[in-house]
Amino acid sequence: MSGLLRRAVSLLVLCSAGCGVAQAQESETSLAVAEHEAPVLRPWGATIPHARRPQINLDAVWWSAPRREPLGRLADRWGVPKTALLQLNPTLDPSARVEAGQRVLVYRHDPSTRSQSVGAPNRGRLEGGAAFPPGDAWTMRSWRPRSFATRQVVTELALSLTAWHERHPDAHPVKLGELSKRSGGRVRPHKSHRTGRDVDIGYVMREPNDGHRFVAVTDDNMDAEATWGLIRQLLATSSVESIFVADSVQAQLVPFAAQTMSDEEQAAVFSVVASGFRAKKAAKLKAVRGHDDHMHVRFSCGPADGECTAARKRKRRRKRRRRR
Asked: What is the mean pLDDT of the chain?
């Protein structure tokens, strides 16, 4: 017994001498990864700097210039004032050109700034817009002034796409279209996309889409199983209000949903399955013309969206019920 006790004491002594060094080394490594390799950010601040999966940094978005061009042109690509870009990159020369492949910081999260959706999606604005980061599960256009959303939407969408890619590693990355402008407002030709809660996402294709535009899907070119996996992952967050999907696309997805969902569950998700006007309107996937080449995902008002129109409507309904 005494021998075991002496051994335990010796282990404690060794740990007290070495654990501090190990922790310090781990802290230094974490800092280095955080600065240079973009740690994964889990919702609301928890970082996992040594994540096994592709890393995503939601606190800072770096951009590799696609070609040699003036700094002002690069600022226009992100819809960011040139002065703001210089504040983020104090070593840049305002009069010099950015070289092709040069990494530039285009967004950094400011914890003191509130990120929120104000008003209705078709009549409102975005405050404290967060830039959507690069990732392995999606591709983005080289012109990105409409690549901003609320911080909650950016977090939920990035994590959902990453989780989907883990479950469908052989699927081609999806193409992300327009979100919102840095401060929200009118985004022509869209009626919505004004408050940082809307995002256009291309369907999962059997062949990679390297073009600038979305491609209209057919029975032959869409990976329906992977597309349904993506939509199911988005719905699992419980933060998606609606997804606008063409009825022809919904028809391709229903057989895969039927493998794990009851008829009642399918009717709650697919408007093409639901019967009656009210049931179709309440379904999560709504059949809307013009969405045969991409889905339009609308996120719900989040806890930080104190002036979100949908949140005010709910409050008004509660007040009316109390008055009754």
From this structure: 82
Quick check: bond before 189 cis, omega within 30? yes
Residues in the chain: 324
CATH code of residue 183: 3.30.1380.10
Domain ranges, residue 288: 109-310
Question: Residue 187 carries which DSSP code?
Answer: -
Q: Where is 275: in which H helix or E strand? A: none
Residue 301 lies in a domain: yes
| pLDDT reading at 129 higher than 60 | yes
Give the max Cα distance, the chain: 80
| Cα gap 135→174, rounded to integer Å | 11
Tell me the C-alpha distance between 139 and 173, whole Å: 6
Residue 283 lies in a domain: yes
User: CA 37, CA 59: separation in Å to the nearest integer?
Assistant: 12
Task: Decide if 249 is inside a domain.
Answer: yes
Q: Is 158 within the bounds of a domain?
A: yes
Higher pLDDT, 85 or 18: 85
Say how many domains are in the chain: 1
The yes-or-no verdict on residue 233 having pLDDT over 90 is: yes
- Residue 307: pLDDT band with limits 50, 70, 90: confident
Q: Which residues contact 258 (CB under 8 A, 6 or more apart)?
A: 266
Q: What is the pLDDT of residues 175-196, one digit of tens each?
A: 999 999 999 999 888 889 999 9
d(CA 268, CA 284) in angstroms, rounded, equals 7
